[in-house]
Amino acid sequence: MPRYGDEECCDMRGLLGFLILFLLSKKPMHGQEIADELAKRRGDKPSPGTIYPALKSLKYAGFLREEEKVGKTITYSLTPRGMKAFHIAKRRFTRTFLGVLS
Amino acid sequence: MPRYGDEECCDMRGLLGFLILFLLSKKPMHGQEIADELAKRRGDKPSPGTIYPALKSLKYAGFLREEEKVGKTITYSLTPRGMKAFHIAKRRFTRTFLGVLS
DNA sequence: TTATATATATCGGATATCCTATATACATAA
DNA sequence: TTATGTATATAGGATATCCGATATATATAA
């Protein structure tokens, strides 16, 4: 039952999609920009096999779209539907973690 | 690839352990108290099959201990090791979600 | 005693996250 | 043209989270 590491209580997975919507709600970005921003925040950079399937799923769900494509660089932005999903998730997030940050 | 629901962007799993440590960092509680508090925060109450294995893992990791047992009611509290793990996780959490709440 | 409610416990499995490895396409420098 | 670097893409699989169903133990009420 080695569920937790030495000083780590959880891996905080399940929030990648939420974080991507959050970042895109501030400004359109492409995959590598998002990965780099997540690296700064979390401490480790998500691999290509992590970030691109996540973007694909969010796009498939109608939460984001390709805004621009220059060479292989695809800039994504939130759709209205994605904005709505983000705000709903943000409300839940805020209520859930009320008091954790203070 | 039905990864996301209609208006939901993620299920925010992976944070149950973190939330339990957070709640116990404020005061000792027993399993049902924790489940009820999570119900208020998240909107749905974690099932016994969710909460008790989580407590067991955290105890196994040395993050919490049984402080008192009355009948079947077990009150848990954080160990110093659990406090440390919580603070480390909290720092990471804060850095990761900087700007989401505002 | 019997019935009911509460709290804890565990098994099995569904699901999702995430990574490793690999491949492809485009741009630019040599 | 060739080489190199960058960005995207996907298959396959390891792992973890979480829940549904079920069982057990204790306390209390009828």
Secondary structure layout plus pairing:
Two copies of one chain form a homodimer.
Chain A: H1 16-26, E1 29-30, H2 31-42, H3 48-60, E2 64-70, E3 73-78, H4 80-96
Antiparallel strand pairs in A: 1-3, 2-3
The structure holds a DNA duplex (30 and 30 nucleotides).
Count of individual beta strands of chain A: 3
What is the CATH class of chain A?
Answer: Mainly Alpha
Structural class of chain A: alpha+beta
* Count of individual helical segments of chain A: 4
> Span from first to last CA of chain A?
33 Å
Percentage of helical residues of chain A? 40-55%
Overall residue-averaged pLDDT value of chain A: 89
What is the CATH superfamily label of chain A?
Answer: Winged helix-like DNA-binding domain superfamily/Winged helix DNA-binding domain
Q: Hey, which two chains have the biggest interface?
A: A-B, 46 and 46 residues
Strand order of the largest sheet of chain A: 1-3-2
Dominant shape of chain A: globular
Strand content of chain A: 5-15%
Poorly predicted runs of chain A: none
Order of helices and strands of chain A: HEHHEEH
Keywords:
DNA-binding, homodimer, globular, 102 residues, 52% helix, Arc Repressor Mutant, subunit A, 3-stranded antiparallel sheet, alpha+beta
Q: Can you walk through the features of this model?
A:
2 copies of one chain form a homodimer. The first copy, chain A, is an alpha+beta fold and 102 residues long. Chain A has a single domain (16-96), classed as Arc Repressor Mutant, subunit A (Orthogonal Bundle). Helices cover 52% and strands 15% of the residues of chain A. Chain A is built from 4 helices and 3 strands. Chain A has a 3-stranded antiparallel sheet with strand order 1-3-2. In chain A, helix 1 crosses helix 4 (80-96). Chain A starts with 15 loop residues before the first helix and ends in a 6-residue tail after the last helix. The model of chain A has no long low-confidence stretch (mean pLDDT 89). The interface between A and B is large, with 46 and 46 residues. The structure holds a DNA duplex (30 and 30 nucleotides).
